[in-house]
Structure formats: C-alpha cells, structure tokens
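Is this the right way to post structure tokens for a design question? Let me know if I should format differently. Anyway, here goes:
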C-alpha cells in the first residue's frame, strides 16, 4: 500500500498537537492574581494569546462618551490604563441634534431625545468599524467596569464559544471537559460570529447551546447576582454557586453596555438599524436583530452570564448614573458595580500601588 507523503503526516501531527494545546488552556484558573494585565499569556497558541494584548484580541476598542462627561471619560481612561487596555473615544450624541430626516422608517415618535442620541452614537461606532474595515471591534459605554481578571475570563469565554460553535446546536458542555476543537484562524473568539454580548443588565438562559463553568471563583455567590430587575432571581439559581454560563446564542438580553462586533456583523447591523427601521431603544432593537424577531433575520450572537462587564456606579446622587434614563434623586451611600467581585474601579488605589490583595465586593459566606 502506498504510504502518504511525509508532509501530510507532519501536518496532521502538528494540527493534532495544536488542538490539544488549545484545549489544554481551559485548565488555567480564572482566579490567578499575577500577570492578569500583561500583554502576553502562556497558552502557547498565538491567536488565543491575542486576548492578552491591549485591545483584548479585537482589532479596535471604541468607547462611547459625551465629550462634556469628563467624569465618565477620566474614569474610563484610568481604569483602562491600569488594565493595560487601549481604546478610542466615539463622541456621544444629543438626540435633539439628530435631524428628523435622517431617521429610518418606523414608529419612533414616542422615543425621548436621549434614546435617539444613544441610538445614533452606537451606530456611529458601528459605522466606524465598517468604514475603517476593522476585522472586529469592542464597543463599550463609558461607565463600564470589569474584574481585575478580565483577560483570563475572556480567554475562558473564547474557549467555551469555540467549542460550542463547532459542536451540535443542542450541546451542553462542561468547561472542564470541552471537546477537542480546531483553533480559529481570524479571531481568538471564533471565525463565525456577528456580535458577542459581553456586558449587559441581564439575560435569560437558553435551554441548550451552553458551556457551563463550575467553580469560577470570579463569580459571586448566587444571592449576590443581580439584573436590571433588582428583585428578580438570577437564572443561574438552578446551578451551584460560582457558575458562569457561556451561551451559543443570547436569550432576551437587556442593555448594550459592552459588545463586540465582527466586520461582517457590523455591516449587517448598520444596514438594519440605521437604514431600515427605528422604533425602539437601541438595546431592544439589537436584541431583535440578534434573535431574529420583529422582522429581522437571526444573527450569531453568543453571550455570557454573569456578564463580564457591568455598570460602575459612584457614591452620591444617582442623577449622574445615566444620560438616558429619567433623573433619580436618590443617594447611593457607596460606590458599586453589580456582579463584579474584584472591580477594577473599586480597586484603583491598590492597582496604583501594585497591591494584589484586592477588595472583594462580594466575599463568600463564611
């Protein structure tokens, strides 16, 4: 029998070895306290190591912020600097500056100027991704906060979604036993997604297409997990404490705090939300675009719960919390970020000093 050429044997062995190393990286703990902000990791897989660079494995990071909200801008600049993250601002938009003739068809007369401005600002960011032909970009709002361990957590998300994307739709996977998969070639997060919904105010869990990460010490105990409805029980209550779930497709997400968009996804999103229809707040239309409701085709939008980014809220008057929602006259006694244990913003003083004994917003019950 004729033997296969050596170059094919070597290629097959090399691919198998690469895939084994790619899978083996899942066993790295998300609780690591050292080198969480470095520009290199130790996975041995070049494309996965890109998550540890200054743009988190995306070609660009864009932050939406009103120029006059210097408090928001300065806070995000400092949080990104201590996290070794680089980004560019995209100016927020006041809705009363958006000309009526630029609005696409749809029943948008009931929307306040703040919602119109938010819609346009997000689409300006998406338009920049398309216009400058970025392969991918992370788009965030200026009050985003994240865990000190963000980069290892994003690596875990990438491993989980890559396994889900290459498996059956009904898969329910254990993070500590992910199947062998071929490493992606374009993005560390996979080669076939439109939008990654990474920061939000809560979402539901689908019944399948899940990668379940038990014993993720960056996740607060279940009793501490919150969504936009502060009294609503988290969908994660069905799992043991400290469980994070990556989903192949989002289910009823709320808030567009932080999301990543691919070039292909950005083109489709800009066409749909800027030119075809405008009748709801931006995050509601984004959800319909992802899920294929309200006349939209479905798009590939993986998600994660608990979210990897959440809203930072400073101490004092709650009127500063949002430039979209109605003013709130209540007073917050201390700063907080829901669902994030080692918040970068709440640990700023320690990060300045290199102190890795981070303050935990949600310590475990003794």
């Amino acid at each position: 029998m004729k033997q296969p050429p050596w170059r094919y044997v070597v290629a097959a062995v090399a691919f198998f070895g690469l895939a084994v190393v790619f899978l083996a990286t899942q066993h790295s703990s998300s609780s690591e306290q050292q080198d969480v902000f470095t520009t290199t990791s130790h996975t041995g897989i070049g494309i996965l190591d890109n998550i540890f660079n200054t743009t988190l494995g995306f070609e660009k990071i864009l932050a939406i912020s009103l120029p006059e909200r210097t408090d928001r801008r300065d806070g995000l600049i400092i949080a990104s600097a201590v996290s070794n993250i680089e980004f560019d601002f995209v100016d927020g938009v006041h809705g009363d500056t958006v000309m009526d003739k630029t609005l696409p068809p749809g029943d948008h007369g009931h929307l306040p100027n703040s919602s119109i401005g938010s819609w346009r600002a997000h689409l300006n960011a998406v338009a920049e991704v398309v216009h400058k032909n970025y392969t991918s970009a992370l788009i965030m709002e200026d009050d985003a906060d994240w865990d000190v361990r963000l980069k290892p957590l994003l690596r875990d998300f990438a491993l989980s979604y890559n396994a889900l994307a290459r498996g059956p739709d009904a898969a329910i996977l254990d993070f500590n036993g992910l199947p062998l998969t071929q490493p992606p070639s374009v993005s560390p997060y996979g080669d076939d997604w439109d939008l990654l919904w990474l920061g939000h105010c809560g979402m539901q869990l689908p019944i399948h297409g899940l990668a379940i990460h038990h014993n993720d010490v960056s996740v607060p105990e279940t009793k501490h997990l919150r969504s936009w409805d502060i009294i609503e029980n988290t969908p994660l209550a069905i799992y043991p404490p400290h469980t994070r779930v990556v989903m192949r497709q989002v289910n009823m997400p709320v808030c567009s705090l932080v999301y990543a968009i691919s070039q292909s996804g950005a083109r489709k999103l800009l066409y749909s939300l800027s030119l075809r229809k405008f009748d709801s707040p931006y995050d509601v239309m984004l959800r319909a675009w992802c899920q294929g409701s309200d006349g939209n085709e479905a798009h590939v939008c993986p998600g994660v719960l608990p979210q990897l980014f959440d809203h930072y809220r400073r101490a004092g008057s709650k009127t500063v919390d949002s430039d979209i929602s109605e003013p709130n006259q209540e007073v917050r006694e201390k700063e907080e970020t829901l669902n994030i244990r080692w918040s970068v913003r709440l640990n700023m003083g320690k990060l300045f000093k290199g102190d890795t004994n981070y303050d935990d917003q949600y310590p475990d019950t003794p």
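Format looks fine. Someone answered above. Worth noting: The first strand starts at residue 60 and ends at 65. The chain has eight helices and 14 strands.
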